[in-house]
């Protein structure tokens, strides 16, 4: 005779799993066993006022993990699919990708309303990063020139006010592949960038001044000030500001600022570090 109590006690640490409903076959699994399937795991949820159809216990550390254990072409990806409104095909809703340098990318498919990127408390989920802003901590001298001779220099914005992802190099040498005094974002997209320089003359009047933002070796935005000293005899400082939106590839593209000026005679030119008119900043746009 089967001892019912012993059978129940024996089953206490096991989970019954129906592997063949048609034959009413039941396989017992211990709680500590792994369930390994070579095919798909299909589950049918229940209508229960929005309760979870899949409930994961985090165990003693209250941490539940869904893990992808293999990669293809150095890419690990988790996809979320739903049925479309017509209920006649699957619809790819979003992909979570892990690519080069373990950068996480969320790809949302289709049109998305802006509210989908905001938490219930109003905190944005998406952010305008990488973001940076730099300025001068010391005066930068510019060799004075006259006439049509223009001496262009790279502006040495060496003091960081913001650098969300450490993608701006405020030193005079290349650091982590980022050239001196340059911004090199590691996320592809469209960026708003702006720069301002204020060139001062110690003696003679400034007759020409220019600020330029470079993407790699090409000028992408510029502002030029040119005056006739006979009409503007008191101009010893020119401030130029320029800004633009530019697409960056997130791998090799860099941005930096150059400036130049001329005077109507001898004297020294400089960018004054104590003024708020010398700066360089940029951030990724949420598009």
Report a brief summary of the structure.
With about 290 residues, the chain is mostly beta strands. It is built from 1 helix and 18 strands.
Question: What this model shows, in words?
Answer:
With 287 residues, the chain is mostly beta strands. It folds into 2 domains: 69-126, no CATH class; 131-284, Sandwich (Jelly Rolls). The chain contains 1 helix and 18 strands. Strands 6, 7, 9, 12, 15, 17 and 18 form a 7-stranded antiparallel β-sheet that branches. The chain has a 4-stranded antiparallel β-sheet with strand order 8-16-13-14, with no helix packed on it. The protein has a 3-stranded antiparallel β-sheet with strand order 3-4-5, with no helix packed on it. A hairpin with a 4-residue loop joins strand 1 and strand 2 (25-30). It starts with a helix and ends with a strand.
CATH architecture of the largest domain, by name, is: Sandwich
- Helicity range: under 10%
pLDDT average, as an integer? 81
The number of E-state strands comes to 18
Envelope shape? elongated
CATH class call of the largest domain: Mainly Beta
Strand coverage percent: 35-45%
Determine the number of helices (DSSP H or I, runs of at least 4 residues).
Answer: 1
For the record, the count of structural domains works out to 2
CATH topology of the largest domain: Jelly Rolls
């Amino acid at each position: 005779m089967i001892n019912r109590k012993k059978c129940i006690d024996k089953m206490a640490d096991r989970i019954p799993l129906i592997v063949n409903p048609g034959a009413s076959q039941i396989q017992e699994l211990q709680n500590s066993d792994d369930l390994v399937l070579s095919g798909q795991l299909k589950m049918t949820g229940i209508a229960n006022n929005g309760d979870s159809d899949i409930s994961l216990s985090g165990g003693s550390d209250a941490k539940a993990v869904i893990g992808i254990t293999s990669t293809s072409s150095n890419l690990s990806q988790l996809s979320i699919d739903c049925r479309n409104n017509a209920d006649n095909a699957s619809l790819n809703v979003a992909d979570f990708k892990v690519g080069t340098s373990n950068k996480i990318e969320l790809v949302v498919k289709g049109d998305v309303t802006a509210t989908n990127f905001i938490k219930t408390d109003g905190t944005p989920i998406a952010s305008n990063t990488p973001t940076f802003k730099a300025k001068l901590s010391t005066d930068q001298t510019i060799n004075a020139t006259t006439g049509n001779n223009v001496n262009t220099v790279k502006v040495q914005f060496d003091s960081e006010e913001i650098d969300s992802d450490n993608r701006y190099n405020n030193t005079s040498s290349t650091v982590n592949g980022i050239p001196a005094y340059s911004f090199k974002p590691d996320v592809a997209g469209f960026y708003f960038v702006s720069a301002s320089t204020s060139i001062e003359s110690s003696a003679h009047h400034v007759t020409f001044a220019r600020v330029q933002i470079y993407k790699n070796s090409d000028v992408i935005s510029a502002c030029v000030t040119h005056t006739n000293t006979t009409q503007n005899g008191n101009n010893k400082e020119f401030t130029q500001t320029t800004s633009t939106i530019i697409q960056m590839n997130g791998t090799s593209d860099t941005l930096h600022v150059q400036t130049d000026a001329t005077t109507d005679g001898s004297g020294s030119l400089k960018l004054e570090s104590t003024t708020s008119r010398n700066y360089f900043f940029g951030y990724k746009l949420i598009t």
